[in-house]
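Worked Example 4.2. Consider the chain below.
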Amino acid sequence: MSEADANKDLLEALNSVNEVKIGDVVKGEVLALDDNKQVIVGIEGTGVEGVVPFKELSNKPEEDVEDTIKIGDVFDLVVISKIGSDKEGGSYLLSQRRLEARKVWDEIEKKFEAGETITAPVTQVVKGGLVVDAGVRGFIPASMIEDHFVEDLNQYKGQTLELKIVEIEPSENRLILSHKEIVKAQREAKKAETMAQLTAGDVVEGKVARLTSFGAFVDLGGVDGLVHVSEIAFERVDKPSDVLKVGQTVKVKVLAVDPEKERISLSIKQTLPQPWDKVTEEVAEGDVIEGTVKRLTSFGAFVEVFPGVEGLVHISQISHKHIATPNEVLTSGEKIKVKVLTVHPEEHRLGLSIKALEEKPAAGTNENKKRSTAKPAVTDAPEESTGFTLGDLVGNELKDSDK
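Applying the procedure from the previous section yields the following structure tokens:
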């Protein structure tokens, strides 16, 4: 071969060598493994060598490089930097791990743009949140873990969570994720499902979620319903916290469902035995029992004799003496003894008397003269249903005068 032909062949060989640039993806053929477990590769199409440090191998943990990488293997690598100068015949620092990470970032970016979620295990609990392995390092701020405050984050370590991608910046290895958004979406779906299933009259179980001055909110499984304080028990309840505790399981009856306003009205007392059903077993006409004055009106006093059972002591049955209003002799909350005059449980009516337990004044006293000439008092009908008729509330003073 002539010198001219030799120079021509050399020039063609040099021109066929591709230039290696930082960030390029190249193919490397394994040439050797050194004592530091570094992989020496030949970069195809360049005529130069590259080095893959042990830590730049795959993200997958491997105990022994020799068991997974063999001489002659070819795999894709990304060029990180140049080692040495051209005069020294420099080589290149290569990475398999970073190339895999680049592919993961590309996949995550596509899911972010499509509005898709990802799943990842929690690998570490750090100050301010959780670290997850999404193929790359991801971070969940504490405020984005749940839709409520979480005191102990250690409970999440090892758990695999579904996550929404909030922010992504591959160049800065920044991946911010949220589990809170998933929880909220699941809760809304569950709420809609529960609302669609509930109908007025259903009796279901739930847990007391929170207590207020006006009632108790009960979690029915993704949606809360309100038990108004008046629907907690048949007896009067001043504060829901007096009879209920947060977390307590209760049976409730659905009174009404309003899907548009997402409101559910519930009752606990309507799942309990009706107090009036057993009244005839507890009392009979002529019995003397103890009760508590619950309400005073212009026409008499309502006395609770059993939880949820109130009877009326008409003003004419309070005293043998003439009184203008019940509060002249009675006080709300006062415990008194009464005699049962009438029992009508089907109408929720119980007629009671205080004066029947007192000695009747001797005939001819000034008081009796006053009472015999007095006209029966006329009172307004009560504002609420009591089970008593207007005649019951006005009283039969003519009959009383003979007693």
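The radius of gyration is 43 Å. The mean pLDDT is 84. Compare this with Example 4.1 before moving on.
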